[in-house]
Amino acid sequence: MPDPLVKIEGLTRRFDVSKPWLNRVIERDDKQFLTANADVSFEIAKGETFALVGESGSGKSTIAKMVVGLLPPSAGTIRFDGQRIDASLGIPRSLRRRFQMIFQDPFASLNPRWRVGEIISEPIRTFGLMNATDARAEAARLLEVVGLSASDVTKYPHEFSGGQRQRIAIARALSSKPEFIVCDEPTSALDVSVQAQILNLMRDLQDEFGLTYLLISHDLSVVRHMATRIGVLYLGRLVEVAQGKRLFAEPQHPYTRMLLDAVPDLALSGRRRRPVEGEIPNPISPPSGCAFHPRCPLAFDRCRTEIPQPRPTPAGQAACHALDDMVPA
Ligand SMILES: Nc1ncnc2c1ncn2[C@@H]1O[C@H](COP(=O)(O)OP(=O)(O)O)[C@@H](O)[C@H]1O
Ligand SMILES: [Mg+2]
């Protein structure tokens, strides 16, 4: 890949989930750590939509927060256009302006006491990009860009529907003229009919402004129409990465196959459709070896002891011992 816009290497995040000190002393418990992400590496090319999928609790949001510098990694690095992003190192404003984030719940992410015009122009003020008059005009213009009306600048978030509020959140994200937007479940809180409109808007904006997206979703049917490439997370680890269409056509990892089997509206000719079997394990005490082995129909001895490393596949990479036998290293 020629100079990726975003390069993530060995990204790991642990959370201290220990009981309070006194309880630990009395109950003679050790400190407990939860590994939300382990050794995650991927790159995002300029103009691409890289999607991260995985069940709830697989570590998607934790990656999103680290990538935009809201949370420091425990290990590993994130580089944006060659420069380190790390919440614990501080991020220069000139760099910070260049990426934004859109959250799942547009109501929670918009200040209810601010008028829409103020909400949208807040990044413009924060980064000192325009004077107040120009910022107001820009907010009105951005409302039209996202399919709302310029006169909506004087309204409050509660006066809008869920889909409209997500449009406002998008307009706000665009106002600092970012190159890269991290979208964490941007349509998961919306009705199905509205989801498609928001996804179409995101695609149009991507074309118009040359945006690069990290799109996060638990829903494969959402990423299917959006993603250039898709990364599949399982219990904090990336188990497969592939070009979007090919992940659906020729999934390699047994977990990816299980996820695809569970999507109801996919035309999987000749393949049996069944729900995702078993529960996602507790990340405080993950299974040994490949964390997927207790649910995996292909698991053998090695899978219980050794964590599989990513190997090249025809359309990307996958980390699975069962594939090692088929794909030459
Ligand atoms: N601040 C935190 N403290 C402790 N555990 C956390 C924290 N944030 C996330 N986790 C845990 O990390 C794991 C991954 O969470 P998250 O990244 O939110 O997953 P996803 O977005 O895929 O649902 C979960 O087990 C979650 O409980
Ligand atoms: Mg999440």
What fold name stands as the CATH topology of the largest domain?
A: Rossmann fold
Radius of gyration: 21 Å
Largest sheet: 8 strands, mixed
Overall residue-averaged pLDDT value: 92
Number of domains: 2
Q: Strand tally, please?
A: 12
Membrane topology: Peripheral membrane protein
Domain ABC transporter: 6-260
Organism: Arenibacterium halophilum
GO molecular function: ATP binding
Walk me through this protein's architecture.
This protein has 329 residues and is α/β, with parallel strands linked by helices. The chain has two domains: 6-98 and 178-324, Rossmann fold; 108-177, no CATH class. It is 33% helix and 21% strand. The chain has helices at residues 21-27, 60-67, 93-96, 106-109, 116-126, 132-145, 162-174, 192-209, 220-224, 244-249, 254-261, 301-305, 321-324; strands at residues 6-16, 33-44, 49-53, 75-80, 83-84, 99-102, 180-184, 212-217, 229-234, 237-243, 311-313, 316-318. The strands form two sheets. Strands 6-7-8-3-9-10-12-11 form an eight-stranded mixed beta sheet, sandwiched between helices. Strands 2-1-4-5 form a four-stranded antiparallel beta sheet, covered by helices on one side. Helix 6 (132-145) crosses helix 7 (162-174) and helix 7 (162-174) runs parallel beside helix 8. It is globular and about 65 Å long. The protein starts with 5 loop residues before the first strand and ends in a 5-residue tail after the last helix. Bound molecules: adenosine-5'-diphosphate and magnesium ion. Adenosine-5'-diphosphate is lined by residues 15, 17, 34, 36, 54, 56-62, 283. Adenosine-5'-diphosphate (ADP) binds at residues 15, 17, 34, 36, 54, 56-62, 283.
